[in-house]
# Entry
Amino acid sequence: MNATTTLPSEPSEPIVQTNEPQKSIEETICSQVLERLGRPIRLVKITAMNVGGNNYRVNTWCKTPPQRTVKNSTGATVQEECFVSGYVISDSFYVKASPEGGIVSSDPLIEKKY
# Structure
């Protein structure tokens, strides 16, 4: 008996491997929110936290300008620069996402703001 070996055929398209890590669902949701909303001034970070199932709370965190309210020598109230600033949630959304991270709905509606 003659045995023949058949080699597998070459794939029609080359397999491309990338070293880029795959985005998490939370990162995908955050990217989509920023695409729809725009980029807030003084943006520090945006977070998406799973609150059950495919539901997420998304918050944009912005740095507040360092200032405080004081009275000047004439008694007028003015904003004075100081050395410490804080952070504020400038926008917050409750998002329902697909298992892949696509935004299905949001409350409130995400509209272009910045």
Notes: Strands lie at 43-52, 55-63, 67-71, 77-81, 87-97, 103-107. The two ends are 76 Å apart (CA to CA). The chain has one domain: 25-107. The longest helix spans residues 25-37.
